[in-house]
Every structure is written in C-alpha cells, then in structure tokens.
Amino acid sequence: MPDGHKSLELLLVGDEGNRADTNGYGSVGYRYRISKYEITTAQWVAFLNHKGKSENDGGLWSNDMDKELSGEGPRCEIKRSGQPGSFQYRVSEQYADRPVNHVSFLDACRFCNWLHNGQGDGDTETGAYTLHGYWGTDGRRIRRNPGARYFVPTEDEWYKAAYFDPAKPGGAGYWKYPTRSDEKLNRDPQSSNAANFFLDEFLDPECYFLKIGTFAKAVSPYGTLDQAGNVYEWTEDLKAPFLRTLRGGAYDSEDAGIHLPVRNSVYSSISDVPDVGIRIAASETDAGFTQIAKPAENASSPISDFPRRPWIDPLTGKPFFPLAWFSYASDQNDLDELAEQGANMVLFINAPGDVDTEQMATDNAIAMRKYLDHAQSRGIRVLIQIGSWHSAHIRGDQVEIDRQRRWIEAIVDHPALFGYQLYDEPEYRAGFGLGVTTRKQLQEFADGLNKTKEWIRRWDKNPNRMVSVVFNLVPLSSWTEYLPIVDSFQVDRYPLDKDQAYFGHRGDWGPLIMAWSMHHGAQAMHEHPHLRNPSPCMQGVGSEHTEGGMVGVWRNPLYDESRYMAYSSLTVGSWGVFHWIRQFGRPNNPEIAKNVGRMYRELRELIPALEASYQKPPFEVIHNHQQITREFLTDSITDITTLGLEDSDRYYLIVCNNSKTFSDVKLRLTGLQLKGTDSRQIEVLNEGWSRNLSYSEDDRQWHIDPHTMCFGDVNVWVIPKDHRTP
C-alpha cells in the first residue's frame, strides 16, 4: 500500500464458532482477518496506476470520482491524465486517506483479485473471484473461490468484526454499535463512541468523508475503525439475483452503524455511488481461504404467487383486460391505428391536462372530451397521464388545484375514461438512494402523489376508476414508496435481443428483470391488499430508439419474443398487456405494428376466458418442471409456468417455458368437467399441431402426452368441453 499513507492493517477475528446474534447474523465458524480501515483513495490510486491503463480495464475509474468532470458533491477526487493505454492517476493529500467511493462490488472483487495475485501486474479477473471480464448484474455468478487470500467479507464476517465482543461485560455477545456501545453515536473525534454521520447537516460539507481513523478511540472489539459511518460497505451477500447487501452507516445516514441491514432496494453488483465504499477481509494465513461460507442467498422461498385481483371496468364493475399502447402524442389517427391493431386501451402520456391558466384548463378540457369521443367511437378506453399535477399539491397551490378539479369534472362522466396515470417513472423525479436527504426528497414526492390521488378521488367518485403508475426498472428503484398510493402499476419486461437469442440486449439484465419484476410484483400484491394485478410493459417493442443518440437499444424484436413475454407474465400473475411506445417523434415501425396486431387478435380470443376465470382458475395443473434449475429466468420463476382458463365452451391451458429445452414435458390436469372420459386430440391455438388428452382412472387426472418445449415456447392448449367422437 502507498508509502506515507494508511495501509490495510489486517486484524485477526478469532473466536470461531461463536453464536449468532438474535437477528441471525454474526456466527462464523473459522478464523479470518479483516482490514482495520476502509479502503482509501490513495490505495485505489495505486491500484489504478497498475491496472487502469485503458478504458476497458474493468471500469475501475469513473468521471464521478472527479468534481471537475462531474460537479460538486461527495467525490474522492481521483484525477486521470494521459492517453488510453497509458493513463495515470493522482489524488491530493487532502483526499488521499479518505475512503474511496464510486466503486462497485465488482470493483471490490477486482481489487481483491489484484491483492490475491500479489499486486503489481497481478491479474484482476481470476483469483479470489472468477470474473473474466464480467460486468453484469446477475450477482449469483460471483462466488468466492477456494483458496481466496483477500475477499469482500460476507455479511456474517462483517457483522462479527463490527459487533461481536467475546469480552463483553456479562458474557460474550453483541453490541448495538461497532464502537463497543449500545448508546447512539455522537460526532466528536475525541469520543470513544463516535462516527461520521448526518445530524441536521453534514459533518464535513466540503469533503463529506473524514480521513480514516479520525475517530481513533471509537474502536470495535476486534480493533476495526469506521465500521460505523463515512461510507456504507459492500458485503458478499446477495438479495438475489441483483442487489448486494451493504453494512455500516455513511456520511449521509441518520443512524450510522446500527446493527440492522442497510435497506438497499437499489444497488446491484455494478452500482458505483457516492456513499458506498469498500472494506476487505482476508484468510487467516497466506495459504488462502479454505472454509465454505454459507450461501449468500435469501433464506425465504424464491417463488411468490400472485393474488388474483384484476383491473375493474369503471362502467360495469367487471374485470377489464387491457390490450394497450403507451402513446406520447396520441390523436384521432393514432386511435384509428390502435383500433385496427385490436387494442382496447391507450395510455395517453402527453394528454392535454396542463392547467396553469384558466384558459388552458378550459381549452384542454374541450380537447380531452373530443379525444375521448373519438376513442369511444373506436371502442378504445383511455388511461390519462396527468403529468406533474403533484407539484401543486406539494406547494399547496389551491388556485391550480381548483383548475385541476374543473378539468376532471369536465370529463369525469365520459364512458371512454378508464382512469388516471400518475407521473411516469416517478423514481427518476424523486431520485433514490440511502441517505437522509434523498430519502426526504423521495418522501416529499410520494406525499405529493398521495395528495394528488386523494383529490382525484374527491372529484371522481367512481370507486372503480383506476389510478395507476408506471415503474421503470422496477427492482432497481425506490418503487415501493409509491405502492400505498396507487391502485395498480406496470412493470417493465424487456425482450430478448434478436441478435442474442439467449440473453437480453443489456447483457443478462433484460431476462432477469423480466423474472424479478414479476416476483416483486407478487410480493407487493401480498403486502398491499388494495393493489390490483400489475400490467407488464413490453419494453422494446415500440419505435426504434437509441440511447444517447448512439447505441440502438430498443430494437425490432421478433414476434415470438414479445408474445413469450406477454404470456409468461400472465402465467405468473400479471393482467393485460401494454406495449411501449408510440408517437415518440419517430415513425411507428410497421413490422412491430403488424406483430402487435397479431398478438392482440390471439389474446382477444382468450379475453372472455380471462375475464371469467382468471381470479379462480377452473382446474389445477401439475407438471414435471416446477423447479428452478437456474438456467435462465431464475430465482423467482419456475422452469415452466401455467395458467388455466375457461369460457362457456372451452378450457384453455397456457404453458410457458422459462428455462431451457425439455423433451419430456408432461402435463396433468385436475378439475376438468368434460363429457365422457374417452381420449381425444387437443390442439395448440394457432399452431396447427396437437397431442392426445387421456383420462387416468388411477389418479383421476387428465394427461397430455409428453412433448418437447424450448426456452421461450408458448403453448395455448384448447380443450373443448363438449367432445363428440366421429
């Protein structure tokens, strides 16, 4: 480590086999070492000057580390100079011994590999962790290797070093704070119970972080410093499949170092943010780590079933199944095209709802009614996005709120009006993060949305009128803050890239978000009984789109990909289908329009069955691939998912393969009320092939003959109730 600056000073953590704390954390069955301090900026500069020579050297440095490049804020002030292939890095003495920030969990793994391999030109891609250039969010891929000499501590290893005291008065046990204290910390550098955390203001509003060891007397039982405050610290543990666990407090947290997990609903293995840094651990000797840490997984079951609460038609009070488009600047021509495709709903994003003046309120109400009239004539319902109305409710602007009231009262009786969409992707408006200031900002925004909803409910008294919201990047956002406010929500489901048949166009992120969004949607439904089933947003099937004007991101997907996303969503508990996005300043893609129309025509055949039986599936399905093999959409969705439906004449069985090729799919159905028990051929909807359906007296179940399914396959089996033999 750099001469003249703080070094790692690895400390031995013994007392192997200690009991866990009452919360289940802290038991470690082996001896190990942990760094006395957080990794410093000077140490990171030494690392970069060996391993950060080129742009593609693992993203170990970013512009966010330099105020000159990214603006004022909590930055470790690492400056880069030179040309690609010979970059050089430096940091001033003012920042050298402060903790490095804007480093991801994968950065930490590469740093550990470098130490494992002797520093210098040591490899960053093998050693403690096998990375081989990996830069994705699927945290399950990264596991500590046998023989690791330096590594990111597990949550138990971190927790034990911070809180366990074999010499605690009254007997070995755990402190509440990593300063051998159960009393809340102060911020006095001379105190033995202090840390750098937020208390009405930042302790250091210029640098934010303090030099490591500033609180030299505030030492943990094993001798570590700053496990409370300064920066949160990565651990190896995983909230599968994306989010890494964090420990300790930070300069922007209210209660630094309390022995509760950091509420991380945002940060994955690739996140590099201002208030997160690194502390490393090491094997007891240079021989390397030989014990097996417990798996870094959630203990709870990965599968969560959805309650069945579909959207309700405000006019009839019956379930309404949306086949919908998100449309930015919709007009009568747009409605005509949607009707031709077979859509029955539009989310009108740039709806004329601006009410800044009396005249605008009047004009926009007239324009909105005219639009609703045409939608009604085309059999399309309208979910209106009402944009930034929350701002008036946050500031208490009663004049503008009154204009909002008159605007809604002018359209509330229209039969085409389905409901209201609160601001699209609100997490981008509110920000997200762990610190006090970002949490306050988020709470203010959520309160503003809640007030908006309350006023809408006063003006529109129809209890079935939808108030919904879009959450983009659902698992990687602060979305749960808004769930008490809305009736339902959309979640993104990203298609597979047509050029990468197995993984999505953003590496592994697309397919995983498909699975995890549904999983967390199910959890949200259980935790908030007022919520109705989420509607998946088929991202990537609107206009051709680019990010930053450079890289094509939303490509023209194959029909089968979009169809798979829709049906897979339905089998795990979504309701309806939304497509993204029309009228985005670019011509609509005719191939996408054709494919969406094809899907809508098929789904329209199923709408009567969905509306009649989605809430209470009419039969049970047992099959031989109900496990999670971790091949593809893992950790939250089983290999094969199914949905049973019925209308007056037929049963339908939707079967989706979420994993890999299976040559032996066996389906058994219980509860079919069919005439007779003789065998019969049943067909797959719109695909021209069939299999035998036979009844077994032994198990009193109907069996569909074994058949093959590949990943992404969707089979919609059609079973007529009234079978007549020729």
Attribute tags:
8-stranded parallel β-barrel, Immunoglobulin-like, 3 domains, globular, 726 residues, single chain, alpha/beta, TIM Barrel, 14 helices, paralog of FGE (formylglycine-generating enzyme)
**What is the end-to-end distance?**
85 Å
Round the mean pLDDT to the nearest integer and report it: 87
- The CATH topology annotation of the largest domain reads as TIM Barrel
Q: Spans of 5+ residues with little confidence (pLDDT < 50)?
A: 295-301, 497-509, 545-555
Beta strands, count = 29
Q: Characterize the biggest β-sheet.
A: 8 strands, parallel, barrel
Q: Globular, elongated, flat, extended or rod-shaped: what is the shape?
A: globular
Fraction in helix: 10-25%
Measured by DSSP, the beta-strand proportion falls in 15-25%
Count of all domains: 3
Radius of gyration: 29 Å
Q: What structural class do the secondary elements suggest?
A: alpha/beta
CATH homolog superfamily of the largest domain: Glycosidases
